[in-house]
Amino acid sequence: MAKLILSLDGMVLREFPLSKERTTIGRKPHNDVVIDNLAVSGEHAMIMTILNDSFLEDLGSTNGTLVNGQPIKKHFLQNNDVIELGKYKIKYHSEVVVAQPAQQDFEKTMVLRAPPLGAAAAPPAAANAPTAAATPASVASAPAPKSLRDTVVDPAQADSLVSTDVGGQAQPASALESQPAAQPQAAVAAAVAAPPAPKPAPAVAPSTVMATAAALAGGSAAVAMPAPAVQAPVAAPAATPATVGVIQILSGPSAGKELPLIKPLTTLGKPGVQVAVIARRPQGYFITHVEGSHFPVVNGRRLDAQAQALSDHDVIELAGVKMEFFLKPNA
Amino acid sequence: MVDLSRSLEIAAATHTGMVRSHNEDTIGSDPGIGLAVLADGMGGYNAGEVASGIAVALVTKQTRELLSRLGAAQGDLSERQSIAADILNDAIAHANSSIFQAANSQPQYSGMGTTLVVALLSDNHINVAHVGDSRLYRLRGEELVQLTRDHSLLQEQIDSGMITKEMARGSQNKNLVTRAVGIEPAVEPEINSFEVREGDTYLLCSDGLNDMVEDDDIHLTLTSLQANLPLAANQLVQMANDNGGRDNVSVILVQVRKPFPASPGLLGRLKNWFGKNGD
């Protein structure tokens, strides 16, 4: 669970777990985080927590709220953000656990379902899950603040968080052993071959689903577990390599020209005649034929349809032009 | 029925990724009828593969049957488009009830479901149905556009203005979809229709691609490699894996080589003619 660490002049005063959907910060005693200082407004700010994400909102305070030195109105909190109210600092710690193999399952896609008939049907699922006391499912069932209710996903929906993913784990082990799952292909074939499915009885279905939700109490708990800390390294090269590849034209009118290979893909040649692409990958540079009846030649050897790794000082011939690939230190 | 295989080129690739042990994605396509289907399954053990497998097999089978039963296109453009939407609706409803039933009758499949994105091309249009967070993109000229909007918690947060697209990249709630096939007795797919142009390239993908590869790099790949569709498909998968490959990754590319207007049967032409005169 994420937490807030309140400090003044570098001295830690207190920690507050973000256990509720709405955590208020202010001078008045009814706030969850009370800061008894005149620079802090009565109702200064609040933090909305939805599953693993927390959002900070300034509630129109007199002296404002800063995050990492910048004044904000609304802010999507990131791990180690520092919130400032007057002289007080609050560090946001999302306390996400480092990825472990066992937890990778919990990142898989899950369905967030609306309860069949309003939120009324949901509480049994939470009630049957004593271990889930502090899960977002139960947290989310707390009444949502009116002011923000419209701006976030309906908390009632979070009540029926069905983790379809942990189904296999939540099942008793014996069930798994005694009923080894059929090969997926076979099952698919069976389903396809089967006559059109009769209409499922709608009266039965929702309760079945709810029962599943209850049985998956472990599932809700799983949802509560912070997702692994390692964020997908979105489109970032694995590491900044020490060298960068460059193509230098050796023949023709542009001889001498250098073309640094910075983008993930660089195309060379004449569209419609002969085109090759050089892909920049974590393990190096690779050249592949894209179009045209002639394939590129590298060091006198003609490529086939496969990608070929480029080495320092390889000579490429493409569309009648000779060029050299080399690596140079990354500036 | 119009054979579209001369007008369309389709290439596809799917991969388990670098982290997962199973590939729960399933892809399928039929250039002849202008169909591409991609599903990203979920569920314990191998149930995810089963759900996505049923979805792709049934949607393909059902669409093929319905198209051949309907024969030549009839009616005016809007009528034909609503027929395409009906076909998609029907095929997805079929897949939904099969998965739902299997999930409720066999304990090892309990709770399984799948996302789905289906593209059905007919009459110079692309009809797209989607459920969950699998996407359809279009490259037209230099412009890459996402034509579907995810049914996910994150998308709802973006829509409500709570977070920006950039912030969404850092969210811990990436994996929550608000709609899926096979989870409830009925499902409501979102269906849209767009006019196609010669040279358009369409990309269907599972979140394993767009979570790992920025839209800019998807754009770069499609523009650089559109002359070689299979290479483009493999390149996209490779990029997702080079960036960590944390999920299964699947792509289907559909390129429009030539226009494919409907060839209305005699009845359709008569009906059109009368329809115009009647107005």
Outline the structure in words.
The complex is a heterodimer of chains A (331) and B (279). Chain A is α+β, with helices and mostly antiparallel strands and 331 residues long. Helices cover 18% and strands 33% of the residues of chain A. Chain A contains 9 helices and 23 strands. In chain A, a hairpin with a 2-residue loop joins strand 5 and strand 6. The longest helix of chain A is centred in the middle third of the chain and has 11 residues. Chain B is an alpha+beta fold and 279 residues long. Chain B is 38% helix and 25% strand. Chain B is built from 8 helices and 11 strands. In chain B, the strands form 2 sheets. A 5-stranded antiparallel β-sheet of chain B has the order 1-11-10-6-7. Chain B has a 5-stranded antiparallel β-sheet with strand order 2-3-4-5-9, covered by helices on one side. In chain B, helix 1 packs antiparallel against helix 2. Chain B is globular. The model of chain B has no long low-confidence stretch (mean pLDDT 90). At the A-B interface, strand 12, strand 13, helix 5, helix 7 and helix 8 of A face helix 1, helix 2, helix 3, strand 8 and helix 6 of B.
Which descriptors apply to this entry?
heterodimer; A: 331 residues; 6-stranded antiparallel β-sheet; 9 helices; 33% strand; B: alpha+beta; 5-stranded antiparallel β-sheet; 11 strands; 38% helix; 25% strand
